[in-house]
Write a structure and sequence with these properties.
By secondary structure, this protein is of the alpha+beta class. It has two domains: 117 residues, Aminotransferase class 4, branched-chain amino acid transferase, N-terminal domain (D-amino Acid Aminotransferase, Chain A, domain 1), CATH 3.30.470.10; 173 residues, Alpha-Beta Barrel (D-amino Acid Aminotransferase, Chain A, domain 2). Helix content is 31%, strand content 26%. It contains ten helices and 15 strands. The strands form two sheets. It has a six-stranded antiparallel β-sheet with strand order 2-1-6-5-3-4. Helix 7 packs across helix 9. The longest helix has 20 residues. 40% of the residues are buried. The protein binds pyridoxal-5'-phosphate (PLP). Pyridoxal-5'-phosphate binds next to strand 10, helix 7 and strand 13.
Length: 305
């Protein structure tokens, strides 16, 4: 039986089309070599959240791959806005702003000049995330998957194969998310989330030197924890730390703050969302509302040093 057409639209070359009709040429280097970068943004009250930070990270990702970004922030903002306005579904959106190196080049060598291709996908925020945030999810430590580390660890490139293998191994073991090893062999993050552990009231998250993605939700959560006067450290998370934690939670733009109630089939703490994570989820929702109402697009505006 044919699958239902995917819900959503794509902006490509100045036009918004239904996802089922959106096409890029097979000669696109994103398709050939994963020669692309992207960023995932969500909306609240139909407006993109912290879009300035996401575009800054997209530019850093592109710069790390020596890829030009021939669009100004204002142009990108207007393209994202146009895509949301024509999304054709109700409710909040998950936006994937993608930039490929376009066509051309001889084999791996870069085309001269480079003509990047911009694609913006706009789809509904995955159903179920809200209830998973309430009930908590299970995490799995898969057998062998190392985060990318180095330059690629800090950016969102089109190469997510290790993450994809880790996630699918985790899903086979009943996990919603799977952990990835950081540069020093400790647990750095999850396949599309950052990782936090709570022990004796202290919140620990791996530092960026673990080769992890500098998550924008991670940064917001760190600001909120500090505002709340809670103890926060950046340090490696080893097996013993995770196994002995009172609470674990993961963060991402789409998952927000999601408590983990199980790790490899064993309960985390009491096997239900912990009090600190529950409190943090409330404060996080408040911070999101504050930031959206103020019209801030970067955390640096919401939390000036
Ligand atoms: C590997 C990885 N880590 C962490 C995150 C969370 O980042 P953010 O909070 O900016 O969405 C993501 C997001 O997709 C990711 O792909």
């Amino acid at each position: 039986m044919a699958e239902d057409a995917p819900t959503g639209v794509a902006w490509i070359d100045g036009r918004v089309t239904p996802l089922s009709e959106a096409r890029v040429p097979v000669t696109d280097r994103g398709f050939l070599f994963a020669d692309s970068v992207f960023d995932t943004v969500r909306t609240y009250e139909e407006l993109p959240f912290l879009l300035g930070d996401h575009l800054d990270r997209l530019r850093r990702s592109a710069a790390a791959l020596s890829m030009p970004v021939p669009w100004t922030d204002d142009e990108l903002l207007s393209i994202v806005g146009m895509t949301i306005n024509q999304r054709g579904f109700a409710g909040e959106s998950s936006l994937r702003v993608m930039l490929t190196r376009g066509d051309g080049g001889s084999g791996l060598s870069f085309p001269e000049p480079q003509r990047p291709r911009l694609v913006v996908l706009c789809r509904p925020v995955p159903g179920g995330y809200a209830s998973m945030g309430e009930a908590g999810v299970h995490l799995v430590r898969p057998s062998r998957h190392q985060g990318k580390g180095g330059v690629l660890g800090h950016i969102k490139s089109g190469d997510y194969l290790d993450n994809l293998l880790a996630l699918n191994e985790g899903r086979r073991s009943g996990g919603m998310e799977a952990l990835m090893l950081g540069a020093d062999g400790s647990w750095g993050e999850a396949t599309t989330s950052n990782l936090f552990a709570v022990s004796d009231g202290v919140v620990t998250t791996p530092g960026l030197e673990a080769g992890i993605l500098p998550g924008i939700t991670r940064a917001l959560v760190m600001h909120v924890l500090t505002e709340e006067g809670l103890s926060l450290t950046e340090a490696s998370l080893h097996d013993a730390h995770l196994e002995g934690a009172d609470e674990l939670f993961i963060t991402s733009s789409l998952k927000e703050v999601m408590p983990a109630v199980g790790l490899d089939g064993q309960p985390v703490g009491a096997g239900e969302p912990g009090p600190l994570t529950t409190q943090l989820r409330e404060r996080f929702a408040g911070a999101v509302q504050r930031i959206q109402r103020a019209g801030y697009t970067r955390l640096s505006e919401a939390f000036p040093c």
